[in-house]
Specification:
Elements lengths: L1 H18 L8 H11 L1 H22 L4 E10 L5 E6 L7 E6 L4 E14 L1 H68 L5 H36 L32 H21 L5 E14 L10 E13 L7 H67 L5 H35 L10
Antiparallel strand pairs: 1-4, 2-3, 4-5, 5-6
Helix pairs in contact: 2-3, 2-4, 3-4, 4-5, 4-6, 4-8, 6-7, 7-8
Length: about 450
């Protein structure tokens, strides 16, 4: 029994070791690359692009010869008899009953059709190639949206980690203060009320720490889901993630034509125009070639292997011309509907350009405001730290109360959290600015 438990533990250890990489540092670049390889959205967009190739093959097949073969085998157990009157020369009419046909009949036939002129087919070939280009741009857009989602989730996790670090530092400082007061109380030199107040502060910090730990676990799971990573995988973020680049707000102005959203809508408009041309193609005549070649055999027995009483081949060649004359205005109505769809897409394109321009300006403004806030909060952290150190020294020398010390510790923690929040706001704004400039894929090559 004991040996079985040991074996089970060894097997679990082997499998968990193959699935987990203990405490491996996950950079933003690695997270993005992992997402582009494993996330469902990225996989589906790649499959859409692959499927576009098959759509082109399907449309192209309509321009190639269509060849089919058919065959039939018929057995007539009862052959109908017909009465015929025959009058020999100089003789009397004679009624004769004659069977027409044979019990067995076999037929084989090959048919070929080839489009010679079909405007709708030619337009469909253009549309198929354009559809592939559309899916290619759609894959780029899907990747960019995935990169943005991963980056935001990544920095959200990092902010929570910094908040946890701030609480841990504050908790360690308060525990040290509590231990000093505990020593004074034990020696009869301190007040028990000061010890109780410090214990309350420690308990509150421990409770807040647990809340942040729970939030961190949820955000780490959200990041794993965003990149398509197994939930059992441990992740650790590098400390240098929050690097501030003051020159980010000075980047070149937005070029809307390079944005993936704009290129995708323009390609969609191109597809709608081809759809309208396909509607117009209904006004054009169509011309096709057709031909067939067949063989018929009949006989008293199964007409194969020389059993046929009679054999004959047949064939035909033809040109088929179809000229549309009047269909009650249905084609014109379809063209008008396609024109409306085209105009609506143009409106969407203009609105998207305006929204992208707005997002770009907002990102620039947010970057500038975040830089000012970061500098202010950084200075505030330094000042709060000096105040805390002075208050600790004064408290040890009896020049400051416990309330002053606890307030100084809380003020220092608040300053650190404000600084962390301003860093996150900056990174989110930076992602939006990179997106506005159409450079999200640069995060892969950092």
């Amino acid at each position: 029994m004991k040996t079985g438990k040991i074996t089970t533990l060894l097997i679990i250890g082997l499998f968990s070791g193959s699935l987990l990489k203990a405490q491996e540092v996950l950079t933003l670049q690695q997270a993005v690359k992992y997402a582009l390889e494993h996330k469902a959205e990225a996989k589906k967009s790649s499959l859409d692009l692959e499927n576009a190739e098959y759509q082109i093959d399907e449309v192209r097949a309509g321009a190639l010869p269509q060849i089919s073969g058919s065959g039939s085998l018929t057995y007539n157990p009862l052959i109908q008899e017909n009465a015929i009157t025959m009058t020999p020369e100089g003789g009397q009419p004679t009624l004769m009953i004659i069977k027409f046909g044979q019990p067995w009949q076999a037929t084989g036939n090959f048919t070929v059709n080839q489009q010679l002129f079909n405007q709708s087919l030619f337009t469909g070939l253009k549309a198929a190639k354009t559809t592939k280009e559309f899916y290619l741009i759609n894959k780029e857009l899907t990747d960019e949206q995935l990169i943005e989602k991963v980056a935001n989730s990544y920095y959200d996790v990092f902010q929570t980690q910094l908040q946890l670090q701030t609480i841990d530092d504050n908790l360690n400082s308060t525990v040290k203060t509590r231990d000093v007061i505990q020593g004074l109380v034990d020696a009869g030199l301190g007040r028990k009320i000061d010890l109780d107040r410090t214990n309350v502060a420690v308990n509150n910090l421990q409770a807040n720490r647990q809340i942040v730990v729970n939030a961190l676990e949820l955000k780490e799971n959200a990041l794993k889901f965003a990149v398509g990573m197994p939930m059992v995988q441990d992740i650790v973020l590098p400390k240098e993630t929050f690097e501030v680049n003051p020159s980010a707000a000075l980047t070149e102005s937005l070029v809307l034509a390079e944005r993936t959203e704009v290129r995708m809508l323009e390609k969609q408009i191109e597809l709608l125009e081809l759809n309208r041309q396909s509607m117009k193609a209904a006004y054009y005549p169509s011309l096709s070639f057709s031909g067939n070649l067949g063989y018929t055999a009949i006989g008293e027995k199964l007409p194969f292997f020389g059993n046929a009483t009679s054999k004959s081949a047949f064939s035909a060649l033809g040109l088929n011309l179809s000229i549309p004359i009047f269909n009650g205005g249905a084609t014109k109505a379809k063209i008008n509907q396609a024109t409306i769809q085209l105009k609506q897409s143009q409106v969407d394109l203009d609105d998207t350009k305006l929204a992208l321009d707005l997002a770009n300006e907002n990102a620039r403004a947010q970057i500038k405001n975040s830089l000012l806030t970061i500098n202010s909060n950084r200075s505030n952290v330094s000042l709060a730290k000096e105040v805390l150190e002075d208050t600790e020294n004064n408290y040890k020398n009896g020049l400051a109360t416990l309330t002053d010390l606890l307030d100084a510790e809380k003020a220092f923690a608040d300053a650190q959290n404000n600084y962390t929040t301003s860093l996150l706001n900056y990174k989110v704004a930076e992602i939006q600015l990179i997106k506005a400039n159409g450079n999200l894929r640069s995060l892969i090559n950092e």
